Amino acid sequence: MAIIRLNYEYLERLTGTDRQTIIERLPMIGSDIERTFEDHVDVEFFPSRVDLYSTEGVARAMRGFLGIEEGLPAYPVTPSGIAFSVDPALAEIRPYLASAVIRNVRLDEAGIESLMGLQESLHWALGRGRRKVAIGVHDMDAVRPPFRYLASPRDRRFVPLDFTEDLSMEEILADHPKGRDYAHLVENFDRFPLIVDAEDRVLSFPPIINGELTRVTTETRNILLDCTGTDDRAVQMAAKIICTALAGAGATIESVSIDGVACPDLSPAERIVSPVDCARLLGLDLDAATMAALLRKMRFGAEPLPDGRVRVLVPPYRADIMHDRDLFEDVAVAYGYDHFDAVLPGTSTTGREHPISALERTVRTIFTGLGYLEVLPFTLTSGKVLYERMGRPPSPDVLPVAKPITEDQSVVRTHILPLLMETLEINRHRELPQRIFAAGDVIRGETTMQTVAAVSIHAAADFSEAYAAMDALCRELGLSPGFAESADPAFIDGRRGDVVVNGTIVGVFGEIHPEVLAAFSLEHPVAALELDLTAVPGYPVRPDTP
Amino acid sequence: MDDLTLNEKRLLVALAPRGRADADTLAGALGTSEEAVVQYAHLCADRGLVTVERTVTKTYALTPEGEEYRRSGLPERQMLEQIGGGIPMKDLQALPLSRIGIGWLRKKGWIAIKNGVAETCGAAPPGDDEIALAAPREGMPGIPDLLRRNLAVEVEEAAYLIAITPAGTALVEPGLDLREEIGTLTRDQILSGSWRTANLRRYSLQTPPKRIYPGKSHPYQRIIDEVKRILQDMGFAEMRGEIVLSAFWDFDALFQPQDHPAREMQDTFYLDRTESLPAGWEGVRDMHEHGGATSSTGWGGVWDAAKAKQCVLRTHTTPLSLRYLIENPWPPVKAFALGQVYRREAIDPTHQPGFEQLEGIVMDEDVTFRHLLGYLREFYQRMGFANVRFRPGYFPYTEPSVEPEVRVDGLGWVELGGAGVFREEVTAPWGIEAPVLAWGLGISRVGMLKLGLKDLRQLYRSDIDWIRETPVIGKGE
Fold first, then answer.
1. Which of A225, A442, A108, A397 is nearest to B242 (CA)?
2. Are the C-beta atoms of B235 and A350 separated by less than 8 Å?
3. A289 phi and psi, to 5 degrees?
């Protein structure tokens, strides 16, 4: 999620009230106060509310929420007469462009910081790491229109931001910090995206880096904005959010003609919504006038219609309004989550434990009754623990995860017994005897199923103890299996047994092989068992699968 | 004093006429070992009936080497006698014992070496070491030399002098019951009735018993069971399901955009498997691309079926809820799941790549956001969190969304889970028309709060002593 730095003085100036009032109510529009500092506060906003990723955007929302200024903010756009052309050769590379001219900009340090922060957050939230959108702002007075967005040869040279010498675009990808970070977005193309002015001077190499020529400073008065990318909706939205944020700080917006189409379009979108639907969702008693008033607090244009519905004008910066429901949520936020009267409905249902959970609970009762302690080993483990140290061949059913964080957690457990051996190893300095068990999910192939395993370690642990425990478990579970000599290499030959139901091996028990004991650094004999719970009578067949 | 053992009584009786005696003597009188007498005496001393005085005497025993020299003289003495007035060095070196003796001869100043000839230096009276070697006793000046040369070793001998106290005498005077004591009753004694006349040993309550531990479930499992019980009490039916799911169920069906960062390999465990799309997948595609037949615009762009077919370890339990609703489409439905979910997170005190998530859903004709808040408040209060508050939240599959917070002593308001009303984009493709209230929370976080753990890893690492010592009662309630 995006953390936005809000400078108190700048925020107070834009909002028109004191910082305490703002900070106190800020969480109730949907944010987390991360940390407060002497002169600023770091706030986390949701990824859906990209319009709150600037001090200007937060001030705009808070003015409405605090009742200082409600309703739709007006964003008049006049044509600048400036033209921008897009090279058709970019179609396969980075086809979309949005732009605007932003005049009468007066940015102090806090304003520049807010703008840079907004750009970075949008690159992440809308741009998905600059792939869908990358944003450039330029001091327009350093260059001359018209502008061209083109596919350039890779050896074109210019001075990138923060450099004093010119580099080729290929060199920028190799040597500039931003070039290295984002090279993967363009390096496979024969030509690179480039923005130049009428005199072929470079403004930007999107999505990598701007030219030093058009650096924005506190002296900058007029900004040329470029948003380029692979997703037209995101590109247009980024331009709208930058323009409306700067307009909030007092700038005026002029449109640019991109191959004949005026950009940006800051007109509101219209939705006609029903207060009845809204009331039914929220459980509030709402008429059209109340609903409209609440929406105006959230900076929507909203008027009741004669038919009882509400006409809503959605400000251009609200990227999150996809569905009428999204407006209803804003009604709830304006109403105040803290004002809702939380009640339980009359819905009448009966509670029920899932049969598998009931079975696991039964197994817990049996083993705790036998004096075993339950442990909860983790479900991700390694092939080394599951097979190698157990002296068993790897199971064809094992499911490796694609990019494990550590080798220790690279597969999902197919058995629980090896994890109990590992638990004994961890506890080898604790008092003996130790008798532990675990029951729960294992995955074989792609199927989730359940097993129970138990181990007992002490000087006299032996086959008879394992056999007796497995026998007791089966009896208590109503299972009447056959017991046959086992070939499981984790156990000592002649001291191991398989549990057989309908000709299938569903469990194993016996005395753990001394080689396996050594592999787990254990110095006493271990009696062990594991049983597939799918074999228990009444186990449900493939539950909850549509 | 009723709980004196027979052995203690016998010691007192033997000691009383003597007043004081050493342990060795008493051992003879009682026909037992000195160690046993000392043990009984200490038990009596704890009761103030006798005093035990321990005296240590040091004696010195010669080592085999020391014993040999006691008989034949130290090597340097033996050599000196063989030298006479003077002897060439090479002859001296050829003498037996020269390896040890020459050094000492020079060190003690018994010989001087000039021009390759060793000459004696006048009289060599017996030294302290030689006097001590003849009959070593504590305090002799030559003892340290013998110890250094490893010719003698120190032996500590403890002697115990036991004396009866007035309290002990007072106890013995009226006479003590010296019949054989019985510890564990035998079957014969019970059946024959001989227990009636037997002297049953009394046991002290001052001696703590050996600690034993019952078999029990894991403290965290008890919390999980408690959570489940609360939901069942509230009328929720339990859901369970597969851990391996296609991205279609884990993400797409829940309206998570295909380029959402949480879907990347960075955050989700992908598996080298694919699963075919279920019947009705086209509705989900339409929802993503343009919002289908709803008032939604969808995410736009082109929905990629290949991405949806990839299998993942479920990142949340919400797919279970949706699949349950598809199977049980008629309201009312109240269901919950409590199961492990997986996120690709590095292990640290508050993160594990897997943890337990609780998921609850309510579908009914007329349930509203207010009811969702009602369920949340009720649930958290039953969990023991008396103070609950609500803040706006964001989740891709719910709208409105809410983040419940609970008040925890010492921590303030703690965010505990998320909730909301399922978006129409989630329910419409499957024909689910009644509103669906949904909430989820990480139970491992609750477990840490309830068990007072600072490190999540303690939950899964299973220290047997911690499980033994954590009482069954008091946790998870």
1. A442
2. yes
3. -65, -45
Find the closest chain B residue to A335 by CA distance. Answer: B392
Global ipTM: 0.91
Report CA-CA distances (Å) from B157 to B39, B57, B67, B112.
17, 5, 21, 44
Q: State how beta strands B199-200 and A482-485 pair.
A: unpaired
Q: What's at B48, amino acid-wise? A: G
**Predicted local confidence at residue A303, as pLDDT:** 97
Question: Angle at the Cα of A231 (from A132 to A273), degrees rounded to 5?
Answer: 115
**What sign does the dihedral A273-A275-A277-A278 (CA atoms) show?**
positive
Q: What is the rounded average pLDDT for all residues in chain B?
A: 90
**Using CA atoms, how far apart are residues A29 and A331, in angstroms rounded to an integer?**
11
Which residues share a beta bridge with B415? B405
Are B31 and B14 within 8 A, CB to CB?
no
pLDDT of residue A326: 95
Distance in angstroms (rounded) separating the CA atoms of residues B357 and B370: 23
pLDDT in tens, A155-196: 999 999 999 999 999 999 999 999 999 999 999 999 999 999
pLDDT in tens, A466-483: 999 999 999 999 999 999
Question: What Å distances lie between residue A357 and A377, A452, B175, B360, B386, CA to CA?
Answer: 18, 13, 67, 16, 29
Per the structure block, which two tokens stand in for B65?
């080497």
Q: Say whether B347 and A405 touch across the interface (CB within 8 A).
A: yes
Task: Name the A residues in 410-469 with CB < 8 Å from any B CB.
Answer: 412, 423, 426-427, 430-431, 434-436, 441, 443, 446-448
Is A100 buried (19+), middle (13-18) or exposed (0-12) by CB count in 10 A?
A: buried
In tens, the pLDDT along B413-460 reads 888 899 999 999 999 999 999 999 999 998 988 888 888 888 888 888
Angle made by CA atoms A526, A532, A534, in degrees to the nearest 5: 165
Question: Among all residues of chain A, which has the CA nearest to that of B279?
Answer: A546
Tokens of A198: 């009428």
Q: What is the mean pLDDT of chain A?
A: 94
Among B310, B471, B315, B277, smallest CA distance to B396 is for B315
Instruction: Name the residue facing B402 among A337, A401, A412 (closest C-beta).
Output: A337
Q: Could you count the other beta carbons within 10 Å of the beta carbon of residue B384? A: 14
Q: Give dist(CA B285, CA B305) in Å, integer.
A: 8
Query: Coil, strand or helix: which one is A384?
Result: helix
Q: Write a three-state SS string for A63-108.
A: HHHCCCCCCCCCCCEEEEEEEEEECHHHHHCCCEEEEEEEECCCCC
